[in-house]
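Worked example

This section walks through a single chain of length 622. The input is the sequence exactly as stored; nothing has been trimmed or padded.
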Amino acid sequence: MCHWVVIRESIQFGYGRLRAEPADFGRRRRSDSAIMKLLEREKRRAARLTRRLLALAAVSLVLALRVNSQPQGVASTAELARLFQVGSPSMDVAILVDASLSMRGHRYADVRQAVVDFTSTFAGAETLSLRMFGDVASAPLEGPANKIAGNVAAYLPAEPMFQNTDLGVAIQKALEFFERDGAGEAQALFLLTDGRHQPPPGSPYTRDFTNDPDWQALRIRAHALCLKRKVFVYGFGLGPQTDVSLLLEIFPAGAVEVMVGAAAQVATALRRDRERSRIAHLRHAVGRDLNTGKIEVSLAQSAVEGDAGGVTQIVTIRNRYRHLPIMLEGVSLQNRAGAVSEVVCELENPPRNLTLAPGRQWQGRLRATLRVEASNFRLGRVERSYRASVRLAPVARFEHKAEIEMLNAGRVEPLCDAPSVETTLRARHGAPYWLIGASLLAGLCLVLIVGRSRKLAAKRRASVEQRHAERKRLTGALKIWPSQKAEPDEVGVDLGAYKTAELDLAPNESGALGVAPRDPHAANVVAHLSGHLIGALSGKAESGRVEFRIEAARGHRLAYESGAEWRETARVILCDRDVIEIDGSWRLRYDNHKLRTRVEVESACGEGRGGRYAIKKGACDV
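Given that input, the structure is written out below as tokens.
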């Protein structure tokens, strides 16, 4: 109620002054026509003053009612900003402080301290421009608010110093600050004054607020700025006689709040208006999100076709709101007119009370199946189509519906897409005649192909087996002599001439040891020669490693020369240049340049498990 009392007194004061002035004019003994003109001019002036003061009274009354009707227990602005993930805007703050000498009568020190305390609460997102004004507008203290807040006390003079009050120049400087390149997303103007617009001589801004072209240009710039950015304008009248309501004529009325009160109320009013600007920004962000966002439902295809087995496609539900999480309670599938009951659509794993944060999405599968009885087998093809149209309508609400209602930002129910999908499923019965003929022909071809494949496989297998047998045939030359004699110089017996994988060593009629074809019934055999293929694959002719072995017959002894010593064994793998001794009576020299020598084999055996020929101990003579 304090605001209203101040406005009422200012109105009474204005009328009292108007009533007193005509008597003064009469005492000056001017002509009746001059007096009448002066009275008419004063009447028009009084009418303008009355309209301004009434508007000021109405605004102050609304503000007082807002303060008195503030709900209790509501979330703070910071909590709401955190809830809706709305960051602080990059805001420009212009503060214009009247430094005319008349401010001394309105506790200028309190106003000055209120401004110092107010600027100390700014964060890094704000850019501050602080000016004193009177006859002129002072050079600004300007920059990031959190960096220059400590200089505010030194910038503001301890006492007011100007003779006049030029509101036009002050507002012009604030507009220049707001119109600069790189300005913030939101802008707030705080004007503190205790008097009327009393410009000094030479000021472009006269008292004719309506017709003065400079005031008109200022008004055009202010309206253009408000169309471009979010602008908040707050005027503080410190006394009954101020032109602070002039802000309502310069800026759009919806962007202006005007208050009248004492200097002691300035600090509270500044904090309250700053909070209102933050709430307005939050309301603007949420309201814009309500108008531009939605719950988007997208389908891979709007029309699908399939057979009796059914079709499946991906359904995506995305929260397109930037700041508002939604609660997705489910998805309603609604059959549209003309849908047949045989086609059944359902969501696999539908959402149940699922929270979708801004920008998040849910994906599921929409499956359409055909539920009809299959007919008995028949010759000839029959096909029937079943069509259905289903509308997908998300059942959702805002997770923070109560907070949106408190902000009064707009609708409190989310806007949802509800697309439809057309599904056509075809049921086919019977076997077509061409399919029966094609099946018989295919079966015949398959039999022929299989028979041909088997013949080719058998031929290849026989060829591989033949090659394996050829590779196992004994090769090389074997020289035999009595152990009591020196090794002869002649070439030994050519084992390859026998074209076999198995031979025997047995004494002939003259008692000399010779090579003979394998005879399992021979009683005088002293040793057996054999060829082997190690690691051969049945499908590869050249796979495997060839080994030639000599094995002592039962009752006979076998030894081979290894370096400077002889080693007895039951059997041994033949190497190039090997010397073998049988029963201590016969010695054999085996030559085969395709094989490695004994030294090379034993060296490879000694390389350990990392070498190509690494085998267990004793494996070389097995």
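What to look for: The chain has a mean pLDDT of 81.
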